[in-house]
Amino acid sequence: MIKHHANFIVTKDEDGILCAADMEQGIFADGKTERELMVDIKEAVECHFDVVPEEVDSKVEIRITGLN
């Protein structure tokens, strides 16, 4: 059952680091690769919404814009 929503916009900084931000929720994540970014996004969402890792996919709808 989805309880929360997180809408991330991904950009790349001048050093090539991928940066994701959900400005509405105030959640931020970054990573050198898309894989690292996704791991960091999930960890940030877990902390923000206080959910355990096993429940992130069932309790939080994560939308990502700007990632190829």
Give a written overview of the molecule.
With 68 residues, this protein is α+β, with helices and mostly antiparallel strands. It is 29% helix and 37% strand. The chain has helices at 34-49, 56-59, and strands at residues 4-12, 18-22, 27-31, 60-65. The chain has a four-stranded mixed beta sheet with strand order 3-2-1-4. Strand 1 and strand 2 (18-22) form a beta hairpin.
Uncertain parts: none
Query: Sheet bearing the most strands, described?
Result: 4 strands, mixed
Looking at the structure, what is the overall shape?
elongated
Number of helices: 2
Note the main attributes of this structure.
single chain; elongated; 4 strands; alpha+beta; 68 residues; four-stranded mixed sheet
Short note summarizing the structure:
With about 70 residues, the chain is an alpha+beta fold. The chain has two helices and four strands, in the order βββααβ. The protein has helices at about 35-50, 55-60, and strands at about 5-10, 20, 25-30, 60-65.
Write the layout of secondary structure elements.
Blueprint: E1 4-12, E2 18-22, E3 27-31, H1 34-49, H2 56-59, E4 60-65
Parallel strand pairs: 1-4
Antiparallel strand pairs: 1-2, 2-3
